[in-house]
Amino acid sequence: MNTKLFQIGIASIKRAEVSPSKRAFTLLDLLAVVGVIALLACFVAPGLARTKPAGQSIQCLSNTRRLANVWHMYAQDNNDRLVIVFHGGNAQGGNFDPSLGPAWAEGWLDWTTSTDNTNENFLLNEKYARFAPYLSTAPSVFKCPSDIFLTPAQRARGWTQRVRSYSIDITLGAGNAESGPWDAAYSHVKKLSQMRFPSPAETYAFLDEHPDSMNDPAFQNPHETSWVDYPGRYHNGATALSFADGHAEMHQWQSAFASRSGAQVNYSNWVINENVNPGDPDIHWISYRAQRQTSSSF
Fold first, then answer.
1. What is the DSSP letter of 82?
2. 108 Cβ contact list (under 8 Å, min separation 6)
3. Of 134, 136, 282, 152, whose CA–CA distance to 210 is shortest?
4. 243 touches 201 (CB < 8 A)
5. Is 191 helix (H, G, I), strand (E, B) or coil?
6. CB atoms within 10 A of CB 61
7. Distance between CA 73 and CA 244 in Å, rounded?
8. Cis peptide preceding 198, ω within 30 of 0
9. Could you tell me which residues are beta bridge partners of residue 132?
């Protein structure tokens, strides 16, 4: 900062304060004060700009933590049974298996103008969503504040956002997990007491999902050398996750995600199936934190 200009500005203010009825600001005084304010703004503005992303990260962690807490409450209220999870056609607005009933949430998100993208009933109405009794007045809990992505066609409809940013680990809860791109390394658990590898404190429950990967409310875990669904990277390349014990954390990815342009939003729905080398640290990290058949992970 220009120290001399700052001193002139402060001195001008003090002179005016001594006898406001006898002395007005001179043009030099005014210029000095304006200069000081401008210099201060230059220093303060970057800090304010950094505050917004940080606040969004905190809110996202709070959302995922709340979802995990509701997930745990549901199990306690239902004799240890985990909430139902559907993927694919059974997750598309009321198409759930009638023998099981609705899942934790429903709705198929994409980049079209389908009403599933904005229909809060699939999150907040007990007819479609088992979390509704716990979250019927809290639609914002399902949405990461950094997830602002829409296509031009969606914006033309006057939409401000899609309704959901989070998905649940497909290994947790009754549903149709094995009917999709399931890997035999994982274990499909339906009760809290069935969780063995890993412990609840190390088992992720909810996470940000990449906007292009987002469709149903279930996250398909990776195979040893390929991804199916893709975590979001809304927070400077990191993903917010919550765990079966109720805590939440940000995870910064290392290899495939760190080098891949797929972190960008391409506004195209696809199953990624990105091939990676065996031992990839990102696949290891997420596969270790999903329920598995044994203590070994990819």
1. P
2. 91, 92, 93, 114, 116, 215, 216
3. 282
4. yes
5. strand
6. 19
7. 11
8. yes
9. none
